[in-house]
Amino acid sequence: MTETTIMRSTALGGRFSFELLGTDPGSLARRGRIETTRGTIETPVFMPVGTQATVKTLHPDEVLGTGAQIILANTYHLMLRPGVELLKDAGGVHRFMGWDRPILTDSGGFQVFSLAANNKVTEEGVTFASHIDGSPWKMTPESVIDLQLAFGSDIMMQLDHVLGLPAERPAIQDATERSARWLERAVAAYDNRSGEATRSVLFGIQQGGMDADLRVWSARTVGSMDVAGCAVGGLSVGEPKDVMNAMLEISTPELPANKPRYLMGVGSPEDLWNGAERGIDMFDCVLPTRAARNGALFTPDGRITITNRKWQTHHEPVDPSCDCAACSRFTAAYIHHLFRAREVLGLRLASVHNLRFLARQMEDIRAALDSGTFRGAAAAFHDRYRPVANRNTAHDHPRGAVRS
Ligand SMILES: [Zn+2]
Q1: Which terminus of the chain has fewer Cβ atoms in its 10 Å neighbourhood, N or C?
Q2: How remote is the CA of residue 395 from the centroid of ligand 1, in Å?
Q3: CA angle, corner 46, sides to 323 and 181, nearest 5?
Q4: pTM, to two decimals
Q5: Spacing, Cα 336 to ligand 1 middle (Å)
Q6: How far is the CA of 73 from the centre of ligand 1 (A)?
Q7: What is the β-pairing status of strands 16-23 and 201-206?
Q8: In contact, 296 and 267? CB cutoff 8 Å
């Protein structure tokens, strides 16, 4: 790793900071560190998703045990159920769910546009019907700041206007420009409403679809605003992986080097390596836990399906190189049995394994950056790992997920 002049950005009077520790000379990859009042986050980092204030099937200690440093929750879902008043009474989402490390909350923009019915965008915001009971709701750039401050999120996301694919350029441009105007309002609302004691910082979201010019414009616009970090949104929504990589390569150089960059909704093992190589610091995805519940487990060679007959008599761990709580104690044959018998422990063990597998990828990426061996480590990973497909599916995307 090249010694760069150490770059640092701070917010909350220094209570939130990002430190760029170094960059890889052969790629856009970076090694960094985020400090929050609830803990340190070494980057690049993968963030497990706990949409409904739970990482599905897992106790928070199990999540922590996989090496998780920060998790996600979702404003849209928490607003509808259990509701902001209950979460305030509970003392915030951390206390409610028994997780005292950092939490990033997505604004719910994507859920409004993908899950809710009758959504209608105006310049003011978006109205929609709850997917749970059809009740009418409204979100504005200001209201999602209020909600996330009330939740006590460590990292809040702006409300953005998200389009389904395919979309024509004028529609993409319109949504991208509206998202930028909504970010300006979010920043103003944040400045007005967050008090001295707040632990929450705000990230903006770059959009622009698969349009290079709009991506560059949006990255520069988001990067010019007073935000603690910059997210890349609207990727991994069904486009081929080489298109996503190309969009990242033109986007990250336009984002401020001294702020963390978060690629939303990306979390297949190959995309973590690809994203890190292109200058991304933070990732999240429902994929590891959702795939686990479907019996798909990651190994260094690719995904396996634990319910396949070949695992019935395999009295070895799923991944002998894995140090997770599942692999260090149970065999593939046992997990196969649990899935066949529909025992819930199977879902839990598979989830623990997949989260640990991704956390280990990030540990490998960070170690390779620290030792200046990123290129070789990435090549070794890609030589061995066989991806499921060369296209990201919208199904794997938490921002597009149906009932994630
Ligand atoms: Zn394991």
Answers
A1: N
A2: 24
A3: 170
A4: 0.95
A5: 14
A6: 24
A7: unpaired
A8: no
For residues 33 and 285, what is the distance between their CA atoms, to the nearest angstrom? 20
User: Tens-digit pLDDT profile for the chain (404 aa)?
Assistant: 555 556 888 888 778 999 999 999 999 999 999 999 999 999 999 999 999 999 999 999 999 999 999 999 999 999 999 999 999 999 999 999 999 999 999 998 888 988 888 899 999 999 999 999 999 999 999 999 999 999 999 999 999 998 877 889 999 999 999 999 999 999 999 999 877 778 899 999 999 999 999 999 999 999 999 999 999 999 998 899 999 999 999 999 999 999 999 999 999 999 999 999 999 999 999 999 999 999 999 999 999 999 999 999 999 999 999 999 999 999 999 999 999 999 999 999 999 999 999 999 999 999 999 999 999 999 999 999 999 877 766 545 545 433 33
323 Cα–ligand 1 center, Å: 6
Express each pLDDT in 18-61 by its tens digit.
999 999 999 999 999 999 999 999 999 999 999 999 999 999 99
pLDDT in tens, 244-257: 999 999 999 999 99
CB-CB contact of 106 with 53 (8 Å): no
**Which residues carry out catalysis?**
106, 284
Neighbours of ion ligand 1 (CB under 5 A): 322, 324, 326-327, 353
Interval between CA 315 and ligand 1 midpoint (Å): 14
